[in-house]
Amino acid sequence: MTRVMRSSTRKRTEISLASNKRSVVKAVQNKSKVVPVNPDLNTSEVAVVDKIQDESTTTTMTAEPEESARSTDKMEIKAEQDEESAQNKCLAISIPPEIFIEICKNLPPADLLRLARTCKTFHAWLSSKESVTTQRIWAASRKEFVRYLTLPPPRGMDEIAYIRLALEKGCQICGAKLVRKIYWAFRARICGSCFQRKTITNHDIKTDARFKRRNTRNILAGLPFVDAHVFRRLGNRRYYWIDDVLENAKTYKSLPSKKRQDWLIKRQKKGAKLMRNARALEMAFLREERIRSIELRGLLLAKREELHKRTEIMAQTKDASNNFYDIDRLRRCASYQKAYKRPYPLTDRAWNMLYRKLVKEYI
Ligand SMILES: [Zn+2]
């Protein structure tokens, strides 16, 4: 796929387009009228493009009114309605795939996820695990727009699953909202109670009825784990994914004794790679958290300064009783206190809203 460099203005335009589904579709339609088929597409892109074009043709053909039908006023009206409904049904059928690819290459992953939810065709184009082009679209997007996702996906994980795991929120098991903690060793974003339910420690295995009289070293061979120090607990406790442990124990038991040693060595090598990868991802996320907290602190300080200035100006005006606003009283208002703690920029619009609240609360 040809990597296209864009100016920052263009990128911002594309991003803002993506935030509005209708705008994206309009942009795509407008582009599709003027941009010719890109002759530089590589083989894989051509394959996807062909597939997509086939789908478009089929959809268009099935949506056309029957030409063999008798020409009556009723049928003409029906034909017009059919045509109109076909157009309304899915605007994607009129988009040349290479234009779609070009647009996607300039969208951040969060917008691609939104775009994939707009219609079945976009969803199919953006969800293909087999399509090299689809995978490259997502990879280009995360490298360009998500600074902490420059590492490739863990082995065996496709781009989309990787991005969704990293960017979305919520426990992947129980669905609890706002959960952000990702255990890269388990490639899972889960809440605390699901973690406790789905894992077992190397200590607990020794007393667990399912593993009695089994050699712990063998059944844990090469399995990724989470260190207890993540939870600020002392000791050499490690948490393992219970399903992995059961699977490992089963496989080990099923092997003839002469093959077990080779199996253990292979598992350990594979496990070491998995853990290196998981640690690299965890480090990248930790770095991002630190950077983000510094950025948020900066935003918060700027916001407080702005609030300070605006309330000083407000204190030079008079309230409903024709007295000057008391600046300390203003700053004790609940809305002011709330705004003071939140790092979002204080735009004119935000201040106008806050101003109205302050006037009410001041009474
Ligand atoms: Zn959960």
Automatic annotation (TrEMBL):
Domain F-box: 89-141
Coiled-coil regions, chain positions: none
SMART domains for the chain: FBOX
Protein name (database record): 5658_t:CDS:1
InterPro entries documented for this protein: F-box-like_dom_sf, F-box_dom
Location of the region described as Disordered in the Swiss-Prot/TrEMBL record: 1-21, 54-73
The organism's place on the tree of life at top rank: Eukaryota
